[in-house]
Amino acid sequence: MESFRYNPRIRAMRPSASMALMAKAREMQRTDPSVIGLAAGEPDFPTPDRICMEAIRAMSEGYTHYTPGPGLPELRQAIRDKLARDNDIHCETEDILVTPGGKNAIFLAVNALLNPGDEVILLDPSWVSYEPIVLSAGGVPVHVRLDWQASYRVTREALEAAVSPRTRLLIVNYPNNPTGRVLTPAEADVLESFLLDNPQVALLSDEVYEKILFDGNVTVSMASRERVRERVITVNGFSKCAAMTGWRLGYLAADKRFMEPIYKLHQHSASCVSGFVQRAAVVALDCQQEMEEMRRIYQERRDLFVSELNEIPGVHCESPAGAFYAWAIFDYPGLDSNGICTYLMDHAGVVGMPGSEYGELRASSMRFSFANATEDMVRAGERIKSALLELPR
Ligand code: GLU
């Protein structure tokens, strides 16, 4: 057979590094069960019992067929109420689409809204799937390299250097994966005035870590800003905050003129999300206490792991304000992000993510998920420390 030349847009994409390193950790654990996998951004907690029981009940009640394409009315209403209550986002039920995961919601929005050649601004370090999703739509990713020495603050100058008449979308993600930063009111002001001055640009706000905030920190939802809300697409999901990664359940909220093409694409791809999963999601939205308990434990793990990292000469880790990642900067001559990552895999038995996968090209860096058992975080910290102490500096 002649060599098969597939879609050039897909050829241009890198495979997902987080999926690859998750698989790598599992493979290593088969021969050495002591390997600790901190690459996956996946809660180690089971999905709260109430949510599972509701799924089982719904399945036995017959929620096993197609549902209305945009989602079950009771779930869309519950999401609308949640957005108003928790995020100060005031929209109608019709502005909400239930999707198979937050990642899919982003894929739909980007693919439905971009024209080939449209530019999309990404604020690096940024999650590994934004760029490939932009490429899948024929878009052009434009990377704004935020500076770790300035705490990755969003500035007007950085946005101005990236914007052009072809800019169609700006993607933001707070609490941030991988840095754990939140969006401060001052940075939200920067984004708001940038949008007001650039009417050709829409903003996609990925808020999937919204409930995982530490030390009383808060983060701004851009769709709460009245003057720009019509141009903001809010994406959220159940994977991270309710420990439901495997259920594949997310949603987006967007103005009707965005929703029309997005929903059309959804109709021709997923059709709808499983009914019993959606019924369970209504209960998940009510699980504030369970989510709070998980958040509290993440905070304990963050404290012990981040302080262990900071005790190592040559390692700097800001305490993250949200999400469940420790983002560490390394100062070991000759070792870039991949070098450190490989070294720790081989000498500490700890699998993390190299920072270069998130577009951090100026500093040697790594992301470690602390959504893992507390004992594993303690062991990982100790092993990283003793492995790095062997290195010359
Ligand atoms: N979002 C998670 C992460 O960053 C899960 C893996 C993925 O979808 O990339 O690790």
Outline of the structure:
The protein has 393 residues and is of the alpha/beta class. It has helices spanning 8-11, 17-31, 49-60, 73-87, 102-113, 130-136, 156-162, 185-197, 256-267, 275-284, 288-310, 337-348, 374-389, and strands at 36-37, 96-99, 119-124, 140-145, 167-173, 202-206, 232-237, 250-253, 315-317, 325-330, 350-351, 353-354, 364-369. α4 runs parallel beside α10 (275-284), α5 crosses α9 and α11 (288-310) runs parallel beside α13.
Give structural notes:
The strands form three sheets. This protein has a seven-stranded mixed β-sheet with strand order 2-8-7-6-5-3-4, with helices on both faces. It has a four-stranded antiparallel β-sheet with strand order 9-10-13-12. A two-stranded parallel ribbon has the order 1-11. The longest helix is centred in the last third of the chain and has 23 residues, at 288-310. It is of the alpha/beta class. The protein has 13 helices and 13 strands. The termini are far apart. It has helices at 8-11, 17-31, 49-60, 73-87, 102-113, 130-136, 156-162, 185-197, 256-267, 275-284, 288-310, 337-348, 374-389, and strands spanning 36-37, 96-99, 119-124, 140-145, 167-173, 202-206, 232-237, 250-253, 315-317, 325-330, 350-351, 353-354, 364-369. Residues 16, 18, 40-41, 103, 127-129, 177 line the site of glutamic acid.
